[in-house]
Amino acid sequence: MEAVVEQPTTHDAPVHLEGLGKEYGHFTALKALDLTVAQGTSLGFLGPNGAGKSTTIKIMTNLIRPSRGRASLFGIDVRREPTRALARIGAVIETPEFYGYLSPLETLAYAGRLRGMSSKDLHSRSEAVLKEVKLTDWADHRIQEFSKGMKQRLAIAQSLLNEPDLLILDEPTSGLDPRGMAEVRDVIKSLKDQGRTIFMSSHLLGEVQEVCDDVALLNHGELLIRGSVRELSRGADTSIIQATFLHPATQGDLEALAALPGVGEVKASGDSTVDLRISGGEEGQARVLEAMIGRGLKVITYRPLGSSLEQLYLDRIQESDRL
Amino acid sequence: MTPSPFAQIVTVASYEIRKYIRGRRLLGMLILLGLIVGLFVGLPPALGIKYASTPDAFVSTFATFSGLLVVLGGVLFAADSLVSEHEKRTGYFLFPNPVRREVLVLGKIAASLLVCTAVLSLYYGAAAIAALVITGSLTWDVGLSYVYTLGYMTAVVGVAYLLSALLKGTVAATVLTFFLFTLIFAIVGGILPRANVEPWFIPTSASGIIANALGGAAVRPGPGGGDVGFVPDPATSLLVFAGYAIAGGILAILLYRRRELAS
Question: What predicted TM-score, i.e. pTM, was given to this entire model?
């Protein structure tokens, strides 16, 4: 396991997972996960399907019991004291269903009353969160008429109702159209700017890069990487770079590029476009660019295909799958 | 600040009652109830048959159907209450709130008991008014039969909640609740006396006191045809109802506390 950034060790942290494991019969969904998220951090919880992300989130929100280990929120054990542990959080888990016979306002009132919110707070906060997720016009309609995307917006709204100190989001943009996704990301970013702690699982690396400070990568129930997005992106060793030349590169040019130190693969992806797999981080990329110019190739564009974090993600998942 | 468990129970119960009202189950039950009352009151004169002359005899015709209404109440207002949170995935909204599972179960049970009590009260109220108008008098036995019906209802609701906490699907929970009280318990209660075992612990046998309170013998079908069933004394029957209600409720809470929302 590569730990780029040391994890905070305080047990009063918004999220503190200690040796967390979960088995479903003979299937191990989660193996001894240790993870701490400090106050004010936004953590992207990454991993392919079946990696253990949802299992972790369900344990954190008391939907399932861990087979071993402990999950604490703000220093309170979720299993032992669920009421206290969940009091300061807002959560969206998968795409929840709501009671079709209620309206969004009534749904928020239900959640708010269970949380002990006053009628005045409930009224003002309900209006605010429905406005934030653009459901104001639907506030009094029965949810049974709602689309999946609208339910997802309502899920985001109810998670924000009590102005939580910790927001736990499981694929929060799932089911939304591109505009809805961008709006939800904006909401999350504004919450982050307010200093709230965010724990967000996602398949979308771009989304995580845009919203989160830190990432934790999980596969087969194991933590593979934990670190800051910036450090991991910078530290990613291998990138796919796409170069476009003014004139098509010759076979000799391609062979010369392939022979450069750090260049793993060279593939022509068009008349004047070449994809190169380059290791050695940003230094390696700069060396290859210099070599291209040195050979007289007129480089028009030179850009990474996908993010370096994405490459790191794919590399680590592949590596983990091979083991 | 998180409210007290009692305040949370009241909140859960109020939203459950709203579900029954808006989901039209209550309306369906009230229509059925109106139909039964209408037939009992309207059919005899239409067929030229005289009404019973005493209030107890008049209400006993209503009492023969109160057991079925109790079971229908359990099916419509209790059997799917817990399991539906899992099957319909509404638990993903409800469970991450700072509320204990036992509070959720108690709130839902309270709603079921209140709605069932309201329905049965209307039924007995209509029967009592009809008896008063037609026979010109009313006895305390009618009230006693009503109380026994409520006792039986608590037992049915308790068992319905146990099945709801135990089973994975709403259909299985509702169907099993219905057949348990209309068929399985009745069969067991009919067979046991043939093996010289008094079925005092079978709730459907104990429910015989509902009609017995009004002077009518509890007649229930046995495996070989109609048979006069065994009915325990009222005190034993009430204890049996309480036993099923409490055991069902406690087991439902224990099972639901451990139940995971995994899929």
Answer: 0.86
